[in-house]
Specification:
Number of strands: 6
Shape: elongated
Strand content: 15-25%
Radius of gyration: 22 Å
Number of domains: 2
């Protein structure tokens, strides 16, 4: 699973806003710009020190992270999405099994599923049955066939969603799920750790910069 079509934006407003409580805009030292890929930023030392302190102070103080927005596409198994729905500070638009599972233009095949090789024989049988139902549905448009297909559909079925979220939500996900038993969560955490400055915010929450300051 890979994040695709990633768009990160909002650093400029987030940094300006985090200085509002103390009217300390004059201390801001980050540099902003744009290129063909969108917003660019070089976070200055003063701004980073404030970010670090706000992150350590807790969720009610690091509101600036909620103003840094992230949008991306992700194909993931349905069992991953059922756990992802635990997190509410995001908006998502998903591909529809209701409209497209039995599409006349898409044959159902095993590469549409996440599965263990030990269960290959079982998945083969399910895929064959789903494909048979799809063919019947294309011919008859019988709603009962769609109901059957959805009841039979394994949780390993890949579904694409376009996500709109923010750095605060992703930081919470990272610390809650980075060592999760499901490999998909570990992969997801590795992916978001590569977002602009995200690793720096991880280190700030873990207090690693404090350790360096005390050396």
């Amino acid at each position: 699973m890979r994040l695709k079509n990633i768009d990160v934006f909002g650093f400029k407003g987030a940094i300006r806003g985090m200085r509002n409580p103390m009217n300390s805009w004059y201390k801001g030292d980050s540099k902003f710009g744009y290129n063909e890929y969108g917003e660019t930023i070089d976070i200055g030392e003063n701004d980073f020190n404030l970010m670090k302190n706000l992150i350590k102070a807790g969720g009610e103080h690091r509101k600036f992270l909620r103003m840094i927005h992230v949008q991306f596409d992700l194909d993931a198994p349905r069992y991953f999405w059922s756990e992802f729905d635990t997190y509410k500070f995001n908006t998502k638009n998903s591909c529809s099994t209701m409209h497209k599972l039995l599409s006349k233009d898409q044959v159902i095949t095993k590469d549409m599923f996440q599965y263990c090789d030990l269960d290959d024989d079982i998945l083969n049988a399910i895929v064959l049955r789903l494909e048979k139902i799809r063919q019947e549905y294309v011919e008859t448009n019988d709603a009962k066939l769609l109901e059957r297909a959805k009841q039979l559909l394994p949780e390993g079925y890949y579904q694409k969603r376009t996500i709109d979220t923010n750095y605060e939500e992703l930081l919470n996900i990272y610390f809650q799920r980075r060592n999760h038993r499901l490999s998909e969560w570990r992969e997801f955490c590795n992916e978001i750790a590569g977002l602009p400055y995200f690793q720096m915010f991880i280190n700030a929450k873990e207090g690693k910069y404090d350790e360096e300051d005390n050396k």
